UniProtKB/TrEMBL annotation:
Signal peptide: none annotated. This is Ketosteroid isomerase-related protein. It comes from Methylomonas defluvii. NCBIfam families: ketosteroid isomerase-related protein (TIGR02096). The keyword Ribosomal protein does not apply. Pfam families: SnoaL_2.
């Protein structure tokens, strides 16, 4: 359980520091990524492309992190708050002009051989839209 919690902590430390090499090294090659209210992608290369796109459109820091894991360390979860800035307009979403947002979020993990084998992210897209486009 402690190893799983440490892995998830390292994952988010790498995210917050913008260290994509370390971030991606914590994933299995066949990682499954369930995108919030979107598609399922598989593979480290797809995940790297997703992160490249996200880092272009958004600047985010995750705070108030709570990490949990099951006893055998094969599954974990994290709850946190996303502090973000909307940098560049993302297709199909409101226009970006540097809006900031504060958004509760969570993630669920499968862990295999000391690496993240699946990550499922969740946040309330409607809440995010209301914060960046309060018309």
């Amino acid at each position: 359980m402690q190893q799983a919690k440490k892995l998830i902590e390292q994952y988010y430390q790498a995210f917050n520091s913008g260290d994509m090499d370390t971030f991606l090294s914590l994933l299995t090659d066949d990682v499954v990524h369930d995108i919030n209210q979107g598609d399922r992608e598989q593979g480290k290369a797809a995940f790297a492309e997703f992160m490249k796109k996200m880092n272009h459109h958004y600047k985010e820091q995750l705070v108030d992190m709570v990490i949990m894991a099951n006893e055998d360390g094969t599954r974990g979860a994290a709850e946190f708050v996303v502090l973000g800035e909307y940098l560049n307009t993302d297709e199909g979403l409101p226009e970006a002009n540097g809006q900031t947002y504060r958004l509760p979020a969570g993630a669920f993990f499968d862990i295999r051989d000391g690496k993240v084998a699946r990550i499922t992210n969740y946040y309330n897209l409607g809440d995010w839209i209301a914060q960046v486009d309060p018309q």
